[in-house]
Design brief:
heterodimer, A: 313 residues, 7-stranded parallel β-sheet, 3-stranded antiparallel β-sheet, B: 235 residues, mainly alpha, 2% strand
Amino acid sequence: MDEIIKAPPLSRRRLLGALVATGAAAAVGPRISAAQPDAIITRPIPSTDEKLPAVGLGSWITFNVGYDDVARASCAEVMRDFFEAGGRLIDSSPMYGSSQATIGYGLYTLGKPPALFSADKVWTSPGSRGPPQIEVSRKQWNVPRFDLLQVHNLLAWKEHLPTLFAMKASGQLRYVGITTSEGRRHRDFEQIMRTQPLDFVQVSYNVLDREAEARILPLAQERGMAVIINRPFRQGALIDRVARHPLPSWAGEIGCVSWAQLLLKFIIAHPAVTCAIPATTRPAHARENVGAARGPLPDKVMRQRIESLVEQL
Amino acid sequence: MSEWWTYRPSSFLLFSARTYYRLFELYNAEIWPWQVLALLVGVAILVLLRKPGTWQGRTISALLAASWLWVAWAYLYSRYASINWMATYFAAAFALEALLLIVLGVGHGLVWRPPAAWISRAGIGLATFAVALQPLIGPLVGRSWSQVEVFAVAPDPTVVGTLGVLVLASGWPKWLLLPIPILWCLVSGATAWVMQSPDAALMPAAAALVIVAGGGSVLSRMAPARDASGTPALD
C-alpha cells in the first residue's frame, strides 16, 4: 500500500536525515519492510488514488492562539517546517477557536504552498448553518476551496452530508468525510460508513487506544475509505508518559530517533491508515513528526512489541 | 451534543495554558494604565464597605456593575472569545450580572446587615483578597507579572470581590445576584484544573466559602436571637 515519492533536493538537514535513515536501514533485520532513504511514505486515497504523505498536521489547541502575533508567527514556522519536511495535509475545525485563522495567516506568510491538502470540518446545528460556516472557514483559511470537508463529531450529519456531497458534485469540494474522537459513537459511525459514499473517515487511534482496530479500520478498508487518525499522542499525554524512559535501542531498527516517531510509525504501519495528524507548537517537532513517514515501518511483530512496551511504562 | 457523558473537561479545553495566560499579558499591555483606575475602584469599594449605608450600597453596586460590564466587553467578548467560542456566552452572562447589579443593587438597593461577625469577616476578607492579594497569586505560582489578573480588569478577582460584597448583603436581591458569580467560579476552576494550573482550587474554594456563609446567614436569621444567658430575645 505504501507509495514512495521523490523528495526535493537535499539540504544539509535533509542530508543528515537521509544518513540516519540509511544507517538505520543497514541495521534493519529481515522482518522490516524496505523503503528507500530520503523518500516519504504516501498512501492512496482509495476513491481517487491520489497520494497523501502518511503524516499530516493537526491544529487542535496548538494553533488556537488568538490575535497573538508572536504565537501566530511561531505557528507559521511550524507550517513551514512541516511543508519543507514533505507534509501536505493540515486539518482544522471551526470548533478550534482561532486555529483556522492561524492557518490562513501561515499559508499567506508561506506564499500559499502548492503542496497543501486542506482538511476542515463543518460543526454546527441545524444543518442550514453549515454553508455559511463553511464559507467563513474558507475565508479564514484563504483558500479557493477545501480539499476535504468532514462532519465534525457527526453533529447534524444527516443535514450536512447532502450539502457536502452537493459541493463535491459541483466542484466546490474534492472529498467528503466524517469524524469522531476518543471512541465516541462508533456504532453510528459504522452505520454511516456502511450507507454513505464517503471518501474519508477520521477517528482516534494510538498505541493505547486501539478500539478502532476492531471494526472501524477494517470497515474503512472494505468500503474503500481513507482514514485520518487524530489524537495520535493522546493530546500529548502519551508523550509525557513515555518521555522519561529511554527510547528502546530496537527503535533504531525502523529509523526512529524519538518516541514521537515510534508512536507515529506504530499508527501509520496499520494498513488501513492513510494519515496521522499530530499537532505541535514547535517547528522541530513538525519536522520530526513528518520524519516518521520516512524509512521502514514496524511489522506486526514489532507493533506488538511497541504495544507491550508502552503499556508497561 | 450527543453522548455528553463521554466528554471530559479536557474535551472542552481548546487552548494551551501558555496561550490562556499570554492573553492576559497582551490584554494588560493594551489597556495600560487603566489597571491603576481599576485598582482605585477596588480600593473605593473596600473603603465604602467599612460603613455601608444606602448610598454606599448603591455606589458599590454601580462600581461593581461597571466592572462586570468592562470585563464582559473588554476581556471576555473582545479577547477571550478569540480562543474560546464559549466566551461569547460568558460575556453575555457577565453583562446580565451587570444589569442585575444596576437593577437590584443601584435601583432596589442592597441592605448591608451581615447576621454574624464571622460572616462579616468572611465578606470583608474575600473582597480585600480580591483587590489586594489575588493579583499576586499568579506571580507567586510562577507566572509572569505581565500576566497579572487585576480586580475590575480580569474576571476572577472581579467575581471574588463581588462575592465578598454579596456575603455582606442581606435581603432577597442578593440571592439573585449570587448564581452567576458562583457558576463562574466553577467554570474558571475547571479551566484552571484542566490546564493543570497550581491555583486551580482557588475559585471553587471562594465559591464554597460563599455557599457556607450563605447557609450560615440563613440559619442565623432562622434561629431566634438569644441574649447572653441563652434566653430568646423578644425584639
